[in-house]
Amino acid sequence: MTYRVTLIPGDGTGPELTAALDTVIAASGVPIAWQRHDAGAAVLERCGTALPDEVIASVRATKVAIKGPVTTPVGAGFRSVNVALRQALDLYACLRPARSLPGVPSRFSGIDLVVVRENTEDLYAGIEHQVTPEAAESIKIITRAASERIVRYAFEYARAHGRHKVTAVHKANIMKLTDGLFLRTAREVAGAYPDIEFDDRIVDNLCLQLVQTPERYDVLVAPNLYGDIVSDLCAGLIGGAGVAPGANIGADAAVFEAVHGSGPDIAGRDIVNPTAFLLSGVLMLEHLGEAAAAGRVYDAVAAVIAEGRRITRDLGGTAGTQEFAQAVADRL
Ligand code: NAD
Question: Which of 18, 260, 305, 311 to mutate to test ligand 1, by most ligand atoms within 8 A of the CB atom?
Answer without folding.
Answer: 260
